[in-house]
Structure formats: structure tokens, C-alpha cells
Amino acid sequence: MTLVAVEIPKIGLVMETARLVRWLKNVGDTVTVGEPLLEVETEKSIIEIEATVSGRLVEILMQPDQEAKVGDQIAWIDTGDAQPARPSAAEPPASGTKGALPSAVVFEAPVGERIRSTPVARRLAAEHGVDVARITGSGPRERVQLEDVRRAIGAQAAKEAPTVAARAPQGLSPMRRALARAMTLSNATIPQFTVERSVDVTMLQALRAEFSAALAQGSPTLSVNDFLLQAVARTLLEFPSLNATFSGDPESPDARIVNASGAHVGLVVAVENGLLVPIFHDVEQFGLAELARRRVDLVERGLKGRLKREELEGATFSISNLGAHGPDRFTAIINPPQSAILAVGRQRDAVVARYGTMEVRPICELTLAVDHRVADGRLASAFLARLVEILEDRDWRLK
Questions:
Q1: Distances (CA, A) of 395 to 52, 137, 263, 288
Q2: Could you say which architecture CATH assigns to the domain 3-78?
Q3: What is the pTM of this model?
């Protein structure tokens, strides 16, 4: 019998904890490498954790609605042929084994040490400034449930309605906390610089209307973001030095620049209480129609918190487009470990000089933020100039 632990993997640079949502396998079931074992909720999405070995699931150490830290052991898989004996609940975890808890141990502190409450209840209470210690729980042994917190929030709102009072400071949502960690890490560890360029989107908008009319009925309408994704992918392949990530301590001999094999581009999406960056892998392989379909699918599932792990990792570059109601220009912060991010201002009419005359043209301002450890100003300027050239051209791949 050979037992292998199932651990909570680290998804992204700043993930610290995850909440177990549900097990997709039961004790005694056979599992294979790459097969989904369970679903966990991170700050960004609900993600499937896959088996890293083949065998039989012999022990589940943590149950749905419990929180686990990165690296915690949550189950055991027997990779041998022998029929394993179920570990005894009386046996303590092996010395130095992180998170290895017998299944009979309750994963919470004894009464008196902290208030019994579910993780989702504590999270909602923190977001609304509600003290769970003042709530009588409706769960087993008076454990505070999510509905208990919701009732308390409603009662508090009704009580405060007649008067205008200063609200108590609200705790950060999990997504906002993850965003804060990532942006703090970005500013602290990445030397960033920016270059700017204007792009005339006359041709792009004309082709967008032409291509959208040529698509089959029921196909997603092409957006500017689809053109941006394709243009950025083409440019990244022409500038492989920017299609990379910086790895390691700059003072260490192990520090290196890791080049990507394809164009993996993130698209920043605004969601409630934060931002989400679904990743489009190998963008260079797809036409505008397929990119539109994938964009709609990723954004819809992202808003529902149903993105897969691989759809949140592996990008070298991101695009942040604030749309028609955004500013003329802005600077975005690089999402580590990526090497660059493109901020796209709103489309606006501007007077430009063309062939010795003045014309009114639709213009967007592009601001490229770059990791100075990966590229310098000359390379970044050349990259942005080529990107503008592609965006203003009529050479696009629809399918």
C-alpha cells in the first residue's frame, strides 16, 4: 500500500486559503491522473482540483464548507494494489505532516476558544461589520450559519434606517483582499515603466461591423476586445522578449527570464468587489469569431465564479479596456508574474493631421506598462508601434 496525500495547490501568486465546496469522488472510488477530485472556492473562482496520481481514494480529511490553507492535506489516495486499512481516528497525524488530520477530528476550535460559525458566515459578517459573537446560531451546537448572518444584517439595517450614522469600517472581501495582495506585490517587486501611443480605430470599427454582419446567426457580436486580443497575440509573437515572465531574485544566479511558447493573454474584467483576469491561451491560433465565443464564455463563467484553474494562470500579458465610459487614458498595474499590461482608453473623436489636412477621426489612447527587468524602453516602444500598426491595418483573421 502506498498512500499519497491530496493537497491544496497554490493557484496564482497570492492565494492563501480555499474553501472546500464539494467532493466529486467518494471514499473507495477509483481515480486517475488528471481526473477532477473536488471543487474549491478561491478568492477568484470555484476551481476543480485534479488528481495528481492514479489509485483509490481511501480517506477524506476535510469536508465541504471548511477552509484549508495552501499545502494542507485534505485526502489520501492509495496508489498500490493492496487493500488499505482505513486510518484510525485515534492515530495522530505524522510528525511534521502539514494539515494531516484524522477524519474524526472536528476542524474548528473547541467551544469557548472561538465562536462556532461557517466560513461563509464569517466572511459575510466581516463584509457587513456584523459581530458573529452576538448572533445565536441555528446550526448544530448553535453554530452560526449563513442565513443567521443575513438575518442579523437585515435587523441591523432596519435599526439604523431612521438615523444617519457613521458606518463601521467594512472588512475586505476575499476577492478585494487577493487584489490588494497582488497589486502590493506588483508595486513592491516589479520596476514598471510606461509608454503611450494613439491609435486610429476607423478601420477597426468598419471591419468590426463588416465581420459581425458576416457571422452566422446566433454568433456573439465582435467587440473591440476581440481585435485587441488578436493584435496583441500577433505582436507578442513578433516580440518574444515581451512574451515572457521574470523568475527569481534579481540578486540570485538562478534569476531568469522565462519565454512562453504561445501568446497567453489575460483580459481584465470588472466584477463585484474586484477584478477578474480570465486567460486566453494560444490566442494566435484563433480567429476573431472564435475569440468572441471564448470571450463571452469566459466572462460569463467568470462572473459566476466558475472559471477553471488553467483559465486563471499562465498569462504573460494582460489587456485592461475600461470601455466607452472610461477615461481618455489611464495606467494599469502589471499583474504578477506577467511582464506587461495594456491600458486602453475610451474611443473619442479627435482632430488629427492626415496628408496635410485636418480630419476628425475616432482615436483611442494606449498605455503600455512593462516590467523593466524583462524589457527596456526601446523594445517597449517598438512593440507598441507595431501593435498600433496592426490595429490600424485591415489584415485580420475572422475564422
A1: 44, 63, 19, 12
A2: Beta Barrel (2.40)
A3: 0.65
